[in-house]
Amino acid sequence: MAGPTTPERPRGRGRSTMKDVAALAGVGIKTVSRVINGEPNVSAVKRQAVWAAVAETGFRRNDSAAQLRSGHTSSIGLVLEDAADPFSSALTRSIQDIAHQHGTVLFSASSAEDPDKERDLVLALCARRVDGLIVVPASGSHTYLLPEIEAGMVCVFVDRPPGDIEADTVLVDNVGGARTGVGHLVRHGHRRIAFIGDRLEIFTARERVRGYREALTEAGIDVDSRLVYNGPPYGEELRAWLRAMLGGADPATAVFCGNSRFTVETVREIRRSPVQPALVGFDDFELADMLTPAVTVVAQDPFGLGQAAAQLLFRRLAGDPTPVQHIHMRTRLIPRGSGEVGP
């Protein structure tokens, strides 16, 4: 007895369909549907024939219709500053792991600190009907999200709070971490401590410079505005400021860096300078422990930050009705040598 023949499929036709699988397996389309969806009451012989036909045709189930009926797409969106940044990479990986545990696909995009680009990306993800959003917000207004939230979109903001709406947030204790790092330098005898950080429009930069100022005030040290830099973490402006700060008549004896990008630039400039200040950086970075001296850091946990944000998002998606939550993650000081030298 001859078996079913393989149907001829025109070149360039596109994806295989259930009809192709049914013809190749010699069964009805309803039988193919039952097998694909794991339903009972299909004989072992037919089930084996269907899966063999699926493998041969390369058929993939299209969930679009079911998603439209249920209102869920089993996908979430993530918008962050820069996917290539090590902090963002760890954050993305942890969120992706939690999403996978929930059978959900993660779509991510970078805003490059541009509020308009952030808005466009977020609304594009909403238009694609993701079930929820995790956002590392650029500065600016977030009222554009209110219609989406009122329509049922679940949003969690991570690393920074939204500008002007009330929403779930998962943040690092930026003030406390900076206060700890600067206090560490004070305890080693330093009184001229410089601060280098991002533009003050960025929430984390504002919080970390606040921690710096609080630590100095607690130690009875006046804040010298000439020792404070808030600007881009690259370029000649930063390098010139570092040279002036390290090579002036009254140089800083210690430097506290607001993030790892500034720490790396500071290490490069120190290598060229006759002045070797003590150094503490906010946020750890690759090979920090391999330098000479190894770099003392106030470490945050981007992986844990992403996990907490994703877990909160999925609790909300499951119907958690509790009031808006603001979670703060602790930092920890890791002394390695660069911050333990006296003036």
UniProtKB/TrEMBL annotation:
Alphabetical keyword list: DNA-binding, Transcription, Transcription regulation
Taxonomic superkingdom: Bacteria
Pfam family, one: Peripla_BP_3
InterPro entries referenced in this protein's UniProt entry, alphabetically: HTH_LacI (IPR000843), LacI/GalR-like_sensor (IPR046335), Lambda_DNA-bd_dom_sf (IPR010982), Peripla_BP_I (IPR028082)
Domain HTH lacI-type: residue ranges: 16-70
Coiled-coil region: none
Stretch forming the signal peptide: none
CDD domains: HTH_LacI (cd01392)
GO MF terms, alphabetically ordered: DNA-binding transcription factor activity; transcription cis-regulatory region binding
Protein name: LacI family transcriptional regulator
